[in-house]
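RECORD TYPE: inverse folding
INPUT: C-alpha cells
STRUCTURE:
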C-alpha cells in the first residue's frame, strides 16, 4: 500500500531530524565555547577605539588610567567562557528549535543578541575609565540600560556578531539549513501520508 511506503519514508525523515537536532545541540554549545576568545580580542580592540574617541581626555587618563583599563579587561577574560555559555540562553530559544523566528524583522538575530550579552562586561570597565561614550559621535556605541530585573551596559553596534568570524558558527548555520530542509520535507511528507490514507479508505469503501 502506498501509505505504508510513505510512512516508511516519513520515519526515515524523522530519524534524520533527530540526528541533526542532536548535532545542532552539540554544535551550538561549541560555538558558545569558541566565542570567548574572539570576544576577548574584540573587547581589547573596542577599548582602544573608545580611548581614541576620547583622545581629548588622554592627558587626564594618563598611563595609569590606560593600565587600569587593560587590567580591567584582563580580569574579565577568565570569566568569558561562562559568560558566553550563559549568553546562549535556554535550549528552547536556540535557532533550530525556533525555525519560525529566524527572520523576524525589528529584532536582533539570535547571534547578535548572544554577542551583545557576551560583551556586556566590558561596559562597566569603560565607564569606570570615563570612556563609555564618544563625546563627538552622532551615535553612541554604548548605553546604560535598565529593564525589569537588572541594569547593564548594552553595545549598540549594528549586526555586531558580524564583527567576528567563527568556523563553528559557519558549520552550525550549514547544519541548520539542512535541518530546516528536513523539517520542511517532514511537513510535506506528513501531508502526503494523510492524502494516501484518505485515498485508500476511499477506494476500500
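DESIGNED SEQUENCE:
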Amino acid at each position: 500500500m502506498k501509505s505504508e511506503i510513505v510512512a516508511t519514508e516519513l520515519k526515515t525523515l524523522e530519524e534524520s531530524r533527530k540526528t541533526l537536532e542532536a548535532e545542532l545541540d552539540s554544535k551550538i554549545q561549541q560555538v558558545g565555547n569558541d566565542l570567548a576568545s574572539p570576544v576577548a580580542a574584540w573587547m581589547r580592540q573596542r577599548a582602544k577605539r573608545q580611548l581614541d574617541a576620547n583622545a581629548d581626555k588622554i592627558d587626564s587618563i594618563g598611563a595609569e588610567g590606560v593600565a587600569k583599563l587593560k587590567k580591567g579587561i584582563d580580569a574579565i577574560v577568565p570569566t568569558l567562557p561562562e559568560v558566553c555559555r550563559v549568553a546562549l540562553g535556554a535550549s528552547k530559544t536556540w535557532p533550530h528549535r525556533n525555525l519560525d523566528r529566524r527572520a523576524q524583522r525589528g529584532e536582533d538575530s539570535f547571534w547578535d543578541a548572544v554577542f551583545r550579552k557576551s560583551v556586556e562586561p566590558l561596559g562597566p570597565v569603560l565607564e569606570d575609565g570615563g570612556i563609555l561614550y564618544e563625546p563627538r559621535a552622532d551615535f553612541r556605541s554604548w548605553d546604560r540600560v535598565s529593564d525589569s530585573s537588572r541594569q547593564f551596559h548594552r553595545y549598540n553596534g549594528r549586526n555586531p556578531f558580524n564583527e567576528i568570524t567563527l568556523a563553528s558558527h559557519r558549520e552550525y548555520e550549514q547544519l541548520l539549513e539542512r535541518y530546516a530542509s528536513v523539517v520542511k520535507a517532514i511537513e510535506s511528507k506528513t501531508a502526503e501520508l494523510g492524502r494516501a490514507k484518505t485515498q485508500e479508505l476511499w477506494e476500500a469503501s
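NOTES: The helical segments are 2-53, 58-76, 80-87, 110-119, 122-128, 167-204.
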